[in-house]
Amino acid sequence: xxxxxxxxxxxxxxxxxxxxxxxxxxxxxxxxxxxxxxxxxxxxxxxxxxxxxxxxxxxxxxxxxxxxx
Length: 69
Fold this sequence. Notes:
Layout: H1 3-13, H2 22-36, H3 42-48, H4 54-67
Helix pairs in contact: 2-4, 3-4
Protein name: Epoxyqueuosine (OQ) reductase QueG
């Protein structure tokens, strides 16, 4: 998800996250993907390892370790 989509669609509905909370949203999504165990998410988790934000990157690394990918 890009920042504009987050700010225009997601953040107004989840106002408690704050406008600078895209990283929180992405970390929560990564956690949910990892906990689901669905192999269809592996490619998205691997892509998130390349994110510039260290919080997202760390969550993606955790997910990779948890899933053994």
